[in-house]
Amino acid sequence: MAYIPHTDEDRREMLATIGVASIEELFGDIPADLRVKGDLAVPEALDEHRLLGRLFELSRRNKNCLTDLVCFLGAGIYDRYIPASVGAIISRGEFLTAYTPYQPELSQGYLQTIYEFQSMVAELYGMDLANASLYDGATAVAEAALMAHAITERAKVAVSEAVHPHYREVLKTYCRALAVEVVELPESEGKTFGLRRASAALASEDRTGESGAGAPQSIGMQNCACVIVQYPNFFGVIEDLAEARRAADEAGALLVVVADPTACALLKPPGEFGADIVVGEGQPLGIAMGFGGPALGLFATRTEHVRRIPGRIVGRTQDREGRTGYVMTLRTREQDIRREKATSNICTNEALMALAATVYLCALGKNGMRQVAESTVRNTQYAIRALTNLDARIGLSQPNPNQPERTRTNPNAPDRSPRLRFPGKVFGEFVLELPRDATEVRDALLAKGILAGLPLGPYYQGMENCLLVAVTETRTKAQIDRYAEALREVLS
Amino acid sequence: MTRKSVPAPILIFEKSRPGRIGCNVPHCDTPEVDWDSAISERRRELNLPEVAELDLIRHFTNLSHINYGIDTGFYPLGSCSMKYNPKINERTAGLAGFTHVHPMQPLETAQGFLAVIAEVQEILAEVTGFDAMTMQPVAGAHGEHTCLMMIKAYHQSQGEGEKRTVVLIPDSAHGTNPASAARCGYSVKSVRTGSDGNCDLSSLEAQLGEEVAAFMVTNPSTLGLFETNISRICEMVHRAGGQVFCDGANLNAMVGITRPGDQGFDCMHLNLHKTFTTPHGGGGPGCGAIGVKAHLEPFLPGPVIRRASDEFRVTSDESRENPDSRVQTPSDDVQGFQSSIVNRPSSIALEYDRPQSIGRVSTFWGQSLMAVRALTYLLAMGRQGLPEIARHAVLNANYVQARLKDWIPPANDRHCMHECVLTLERYKREFGVRALDFSKRLIDYGFHPPTNYFPLIVPECLMIEPTETESKETLDAFCYALIAVCGEAKDAPELLHDAPTSQVVGRLDETKAVKELDVRWRPAREPALT
Q1: How many domains does chain B fold into?
Q2: Is residue B74 part of a domain?
């Protein structure tokens, strides 16, 4: 066996040293009735050649977004360009097969990359500092909510309906176990904030029934530990964070922003709007889609909250002779020291994925990140025009000065023409309202090799005809044109 | 000892030069846009490094040279199962048919992934003796948390949610156990370990009552010992109405030998990054599958992928949000797929009918690419190979314990399982050197130190887990080094106090790190004009 080096002679010598006659004797503490009798009912071993064949065959039962499908599906995981350098670095055994850097003298390489990671995440989000990573976007949202709960000692959190439905599900799972109430702030026209009705929305969460009839408006607001909003939100719409900040202030609540890191390379970052905690899904930063995992939870906050942060933090310090080095710090927050009083139960995080993100951000750098974000916007704007003007697609490649950049809902358009569902400005993603059931259209386009987007019917009432379409920098004009052409065929 | 000669590590930010870039970004061929009308306010600056591709490759390659991994050398960290991660795992998980798959693709285009996840679950269910598994938890602590949330939901379903508020935890437990219990609103009570290293049954009996929701047991315990009374413990807890959770960190000792499900546990978490060779990655990603008995199955986080009768099913908890629960039958174009266990065609069904589920615990399907690695390993080991994991892990640990016992005695004089726990109390008492000093000195001998100061109940302890993938020569070299350090502790203790001296840095000032908190680089400010 390639992975077990023992020869018969090794075993003999080792057993003699131990002073037993057989390996079997070493298991003497296990009562006989608890021993496995005979073989486990699991498959026979495969040699490496056959193993590769078997896994390759399994991989081919998936349709991939490299050669089989053109991906316009996003919803939190994006088909972005990954520089080859990312794979080259994260597959180095010194990183890949290391454990948590509990022995800093042997882990300076990793610790320094984590310090660099924290610096770049804090910079992208416009925050004071970031941690060394959490599991994924959804659990980062839940951790942020529970941190706000711990800071404010309030047992209720408010989350926008325009936050990713899976993030809200995980948030509810985590909160239910701690009897923390989750109230949802309704979206309107694809936005939660920006319509100057945030306070009203917060106050009207009476529908949970908890506040009781005639409860003063202030009770619902005062009791929220935090207000959670996504930027851009699940529909791709860019929320008005200034308005969200004001609403949170009125409620005396912390503002938690779930932010797409790529968007933050271009847009004014959440930190500049005064967010208290910014979290996000780091997959767009050089991590394979990989059916959604491993992903990367990003977590940043303000200095005043540093002792409440969940998970690991790496800090810079010196050794006895003044040499600069890095260590895990503020360790008294963590489970192995603080046990039931820890800020979180997280131990293992996503260090390797954080390393991938670090290499990615270095490879793209200031200008590359900007370019990726700008290309995303250009491709998205082009796709909006292409997909909402199926009957008049000539001349689309030239900007038409007489037409607004963003095609708004056209009341005169024939019924079969897809429309942009929401009026707000978008980044990288938008909701296309179709004249038919979106799942049917999605399936018809799949047959043409196009992964058209996410049908929203299962997630939002009344959006059965809506498709969430993502357009990254990896899409080309020709692919978008092909999508538009295929959509025209499907709808005609 | 001479220090490693590597370039003094400077931050990537300090290597940045305006105008450089480290990759060829995709060309954009769609029209320019008017930025003000397209998007909201743009940011003013973005301080990310600007380096060429070679700059960054050298930067991170050089950093890798001052980092220790299993591929570098022996890594006997107790409770972590730092075993060899076969390279074929990386090859299979890197196939485009796995890496370039979106988690929300229509499931008929992701049949391969569902087959991988289902097959890993089936094999692990057989290895652990549980009725149902889920791969959704993404790490060990996440799996613990998930199990406790399910236990809480179970007690609530029995009308006992209010009164069962306490979780019992042995004094030898991992810190994640109490932290996960706290995450579920439970208070924690400690159960003593007896002088023989087993759970003290009288201490357990005294704590049991109708307020107890669960007992969290690590088996083998963190002392590296099989809990010989485990069946009796489970019976006692069950009689009191509680559930028993198995912390699976030490599953490596039991694979193919004994099954937690048969021992009486109600649920457990596994660390696939420990037992089943998905990489530790410097502290993650983990992969924390969980297994449950049938009575807890309704509470599993959704969606669940599993075989029901002759078909794989994906079930979800969306019924809580979609009141009109429905079963969507397989459509005609859904391609059947086969399992290597039972070689017959199967199909997928989506079921929106899991009203008792605790809900989703991570964004999508868990660590899917880690499931690919785990399946690769499970199939490489196969039916005959799997029990060899535990057999040789236990052989190696007992060999190390036997080789060292005259210098460093074990905390308990028994055959250990996959790891041995030794105590250096005598060296502290007689020579003033501590477990930490031993650990740091081992670094100068070229070894990663074992876990130290854990479990908390053993003074000055070293917890050594060699794993099955290490050869006798490696174990001999390690034991020689540790015995040499024992001699130094007596004759030249300053060598231990000053260690390590072989690395790019010596012992680092952790107090300074906290007091002068520096957790991010910032650009130097422009010097003020005077």
Answers
A1: 1
A2: no
Q: Measure CB to CB from residue A352 to each of B33, B68, B284 and give the nearest one.
A: B284
Angle between helices B53-65 and A351-388 (to 10 degrees): 150
Q: DSSP string covering A76-87, please?
A: T-------HHHH
DSSP A275: -
Quick check: helix, strand or coil at residue A440? helix
- Across the interface, which of B104, B301, B403 has its CB nearest the CB of A454? B104
Cβ–Cβ pairs < 8 A, chains A and B = 715
Rounded to two decimals, what is the model's pTM? 0.93
Residue A396 has pLDDT above 50, yes or no: no
**Cβ neighbours around B165 below 10 Å, total:** 14
Judging contacts by C-beta atoms under 8 Å, the chain B residues touching residue A25 are 415
Burial of A358 (0-12, 13-18, 19+ CB in 10 A): buried
Residue A321: CA count within 13 A, CB half-sphere: 10
Q: Has domain A364-491 been given CATH number 1.10.10.10?
A: no
CATH number of the domain bearing residue B470 = 3.90.1150.10
Give the lowest-confidence range in A91-105, A387-401, B274-288. Answer: A387-401
Average pLDDT over every residue of B408-433: 96
Hey, which residues does B110 pair with through a beta bridge?
A62
Any idea which residue has 């399910």 for tokens? Answer: B150
Please list, in sequence order, all residues whose beta carbon lies within 8 angstroms of the beta carbon of residue A366, skipping any fewer than 6 positions away: B46, B47, B48, B49, B50
pLDDT in tens, A154-169: 999 999 999 999 999 9
CB A314 within 8 A of CB B519: yes
Residue B230 lies in a domain: no
Predicted ipTM of the assembly: 0.93
Residue numbers of B between 184 and 203 with CB closer than 8 Å to A: 184-185, 187-188
- Res A339: pLDDT: 87
Reduced to 3 states, what is the DSSP secondary structure of residue A129?
strand
CB contact under 8 A, B337 and A378: no
| Closest chain A residue to B62, measured at CA | A109
Say if B236 falls within a structural domain: no
- Residue B251, class by beta-carbon neighbours within 10 Å (0-12 exposed, 13-18 middle, 19+ buried)? buried
Burial of residue B252 (number of CB atoms within 10 Å: 0-12, 13-18, 19+) = buried
Closest residue of chain B to A165, computed from CA coordinates: B363
- pLDDT confidence of residue A439: 97
Lowest mean per-residue pLDDT among A402-416, B142-156, B190-204: A402-416
Q: May I ask the CATH architecture of the domain A88-361?
A: 3-Layer(aba) Sandwich (3.40)
pLDDT band of A336, cuts 50, 70, 90: confident
**The pLDDT value given to residue B345:** 36
Average pLDDT of every residue of chain A: 90
Residue B452 · residue B439 · CB < 8 Å: yes
pLDDT of B348 reads 42
Burial (CB count within 10 angstroms: exposed 0-12, middle 13-18, buried 19+), residue A492: exposed
Q: Which residues are registered as beta bridge partners of B230? A: none
Q: Where are the domains of chain A?
A: 88-361, 364-491
Q: What residues make up the domain containing B454?
A: 382-515
Which is more confident, B309 or A294? A294
B429 CB contacts (<8 Å, ≥6 apart)?
Answer: none
A455 φ/ψ angles, rounded to the nearest 5 degrees = -65, 130
Sign of CA dihedral B239, B240, B245, B251: negative
pLDDT digits (tens, 9 = 90+) for A172-215: 999 999 999 999 999 888 988 764 454 555 555 443 323 223 33
Residue B505 lies in a domain: yes
For chain B, give the mean pLDDT: 90
Gap from B349 CA to chain A (nearest CA, Å):
16
Segment B457-481, tens digit of pLDDT: 999 999 999 999 999 999 999 999 9
